[in-house]
Specification:
By secondary structure, the protein is mostly helical. It is built from four helices and no strands. Helix 2 (35-46) packs across helix 3.
Length: 76
């Protein structure tokens, strides 16, 4: 989490929402140019599911928009 620059708490010291933390993680992973490093960090964060999540990290906002269009409330 530290290596990706993700803040666990907000400015008032309260823990940030799971959704906000997840989106930060996905955006941070998408910015890593080295694919091996991206997979390594994804695996550390999400275990074996990390590889699958890394593959969609670059399009997480598009996937989220599509889910909203399909009627999924994602708690923005």
């Amino acid at each position: 989490i530290k290596q990706l620059g993700i803040e666990l708490t907000n400015g008032q010291g309260a823990l940030r929402s799971t959704e906000a933390l997840f989106m930060d993680a996905m955006h941070s992973l998408a910015e890593i140019e080295n694919p091996l490093e991206r997979v390594r960090l994804g695996f550390k964060l999400f275990d074996s599911e990390g590889v699958a999540l890394v593959n969609m990290a670059g399009n997480v906002d598009g996937l989220r928009s599509e889910a909203v269009k399909l009627g999924r409330n994602l708690g923005q």
